[in-house]
Write a structure and sequence with these properties.
- InterPro entries: TPR-like_helical_dom_sf, TPR_rpt.
- This is MalT-like TPR region domain-containing protein.
- The longest helix is centred in the first third of the chain and has 19 residues.
- Helix content is 78%, strand content 0%.
- The protein is elongated.
Length: 185
């Protein structure tokens, strides 16, 4: 596409491919290479959709860059990028809309804050993610992503010393995972 449209002409397909290359390098553990392609993709997306325009692809790239920053050990930068992505997802899908992209970003924010040792700060994003995931999939529908958030909430409560609360969430996560994967797994 760069040949067809010119080296410096932004194109959606090129931006997507740059993002995909960044994810490929992330999977290979090449954080610097991943960051390079993701930043290139982000710059092109901003040219295409507008510097300050909320767009799902821009939010996705910010979220991917957050994952790279976390792997590089820059948890503050990872948090900033993830909060930017979350804010943009909320603008794209609606601030009060239950959407899986928002729920996953909230879960990831809780996980990141937990990793940073901010146990109090991690609880609200986890709880909001859990509520949203249950709304998306159904309150009584067993789903792996709901179980994962239940488990993380259990781990958080354990780390805060609330062993009874931790056990409740971990038991609920286990019961749901057994429904999802089968009793013999």
């Amino acid at each position: 596409r760069r040949h067809l449209h010119g080296e410096d002409t932004p194109h959606g397909d090129v931006a997507v491919t740059l993002h995909d290359l960044g994810l490929l390098l992330w999977d290979r553990g090449d954080w610097n290479g991943a960051e390079k392609f993701l930043r290139e993709s982000l710059a092109m997306q901003r040219q295409l959709y507008g510097e300050d325009t909320p767009h799902e692809k821009i939010a996705s790239t910010l979220k991917s860059l957050s994952s790279v920053a976390k792997e590089q050990g820059d948890l503050d930068q990872a948090e900033k990028l993830l909060r930017d992505a979350l804010e943009m997802f909320r603008k794209v899908f609606g601030k009060d809309t239950a959407h899986l992209r928002i729920a996953v970003s909230l879960h990831d924010l809780g996980f990141l804050l937990h990793d940073k040792g901010d146990l109090d700060g991690a609880e609200e994003p986890y709880r909001e993610a859990l509520k949203m995931k249950k709304h998306v999939f159904g309150e009584d529908t067993p789903h792996m992503t709901i179980a994962v958030t239940l488990g993380r909430l259990g781990k958080l409560l354990h780390d805060r010393g609330d062993l009874d609360g931790a056990e409740e969430y971990l038991q609920e996560a286990l019961a749901m995972l057994m429904k999802v994967y089968g009793e013999d797994k």
